[in-house]
C-alpha cells in the first residue's frame, strides 16, 4: 500500500516571547539576547541563540514530556523568527525522526523521515508533506515506492519488490491507478497491461475495485 500516514506535525514551540526563566545576556532594552537557556512556563527548555527576543540561529528545543519517563520531543537545528528554518533534526515522542530542511516551522526541501515501525522516506517535502521526487521504504512489505509524490501521496513511479521485480505506472489512493502500466522482471521480461476499474462483487452500491488485464509478455532478444 503506497499511501502512508503523514508523519506527525512538528511539535510547535511557544511563539510568545515570554520565558519563565532566562539564563543568558540581555540587550539595552532588558530583553534576552545572545546565547543562553530559556525555560518556559509549561516546562519546555530552549538552549541556543536569541535575537530581538526570538529564537534565531542554531538552538535546541526540548519539549516537556506528557508522561513521566517518556520523551516529549527534541529539535536541534536552525531557527528564524521563532520558527524552525534551515537544517534541523526533530525527534518525535513516538521515536520517529526527521532530519532535513525546514521552512517556517514545516518540513520543506530535502529530508529523511524514519518511522518507528522501520519504514522511511527520503526525498522532497513541501509544507510538511511528501511532495516531489522521493523514495519510501515499507519495512513490513519489503518494497520501495520510488518516484513522484504530491500532498503526501505516491502518484507516479516504480513500486519495487525484494525479488528485483517492479511495477511502473501511476498510483491513486495508495494503489495502482486505473490505466496503463507495466511489470518489469529481473530476467528482462516485461508484461504491459492496464488496470480496469470494475464494480466490487458483493460490495455496496458504488464500490469498485481495479483488475489487472495483462497484455502480451515481452521477452528480450536472446533470452
Describe the structure.
- With 223 residues, this protein is mainly β.
- It is 0% helix and 57% strand.
- The protein has strands at 21-26, 32-39, 45-51, 54-62, 74-80, 83-91, 97-103, 106-114, 120-126, 129-138, 143-150, 153-161, 166-172, 175-176, 179-184, 190-199, 208-214.
- The mean pLDDT is 91.
Summarize the structure.
This protein has 223 residues and is an all-beta fold. The chain has no helices and 17 strands.
Low-confidence stretches: none
What gyration radius follows from the Cα positions, in whole Å?
24 Å
What does the main sheet amount to?
17 strands, antiparallel
Q: Roughly what is the average pLDDT, rounded to an integer?
A: 91
Question: With helices defined by DSSP (H or I, 4 residues minimum), what is the helix count?
Answer: 0
Distance between the termini: 32 Å
Oligomer: single chain
| Helical coverage, percent range | under 10%
Topology of this structure?
Blueprint: E1 21-26, E2 32-39, E3 45-51, E4 54-62, E5 74-80, E6 83-91, E7 97-103, E8 106-114, E9 120-126, E10 129-138, E11 143-150, E12 153-161, E13 166-172, E14 175-176, E15 179-184, E16 190-199, E17 208-214
Antiparallel strand pairs: 1-2, 2-3, 3-4, 4-5, 5-6, 6-7, 7-8, 8-9, 9-10, 10-11, 11-12, 12-13, 13-14, 13-15, 15-16, 16-17
What features would you highlight for this structure?
223 residues, 17 strands, mainly beta
Amino acid at each position: 500500500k503506497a499511501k502512508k500516514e503523514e508523519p506527525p506535525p512538528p511539535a510547535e514551540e511557544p511563539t510568545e516571547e515570554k520565558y519563565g526563566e532566562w539564563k543568558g545576556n540581555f540587550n539595552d532594552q532588558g530583553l534576552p539576547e545572545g546565547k543562553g537557556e530559556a525555560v518556559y512556563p509549561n516546562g519546555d527548555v530552549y538552549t541556543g541563540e536569541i535575537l530581538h527576543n526570538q529564537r534565531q540561529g542554531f538552538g535546541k528545543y526540548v519539549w516537556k514530556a506528557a508522561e513521566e519517563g517518556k520523551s516529549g520531543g527534541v529539535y536541534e537545528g536552525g531557527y528564524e523568527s521563532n520558527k524552525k528554518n534551515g537544517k534541523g533534526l526533530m525527534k518525535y515522542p513516538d521515536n520517529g525522526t526527521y532530519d532535513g530542511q525546514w521552512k517556517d516551522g514545516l518540513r520543506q526541501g530535502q529530508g529523511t523521515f524514519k518511522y518507528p515501525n522501520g519504514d522511511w522516506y527520503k526525498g522532497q517535502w513541501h509544507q510538511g508533506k511528501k511532495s516531489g521526487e522521493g523514495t519510501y521504504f515499507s519495512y513490513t512489505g519489503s518494497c520501495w515506492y520510488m518516484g513522484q509524490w504530491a500532498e503526501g501521496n505516491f502518484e507516479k513511479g516504480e513500486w519495487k519488490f525484494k525479488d528485483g521485480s517492479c511495477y511502473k505506472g501511476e498510483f491513486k489512493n495508495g494503489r495502482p491507478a486505473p490505466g496503463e502500466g507495466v511489470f518489469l522482471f529481473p530476467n528482462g521480461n516485461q508484461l504491459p497491461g492496464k488496470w480496469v476499474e470494475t464494480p466490487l462483487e458483493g460490495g455496496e452500491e458504488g464500490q469498485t475495485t481495479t483488475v489487472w488485464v495483462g497484455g502480451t509478455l515481452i521477452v528480450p532478444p536472446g533470452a
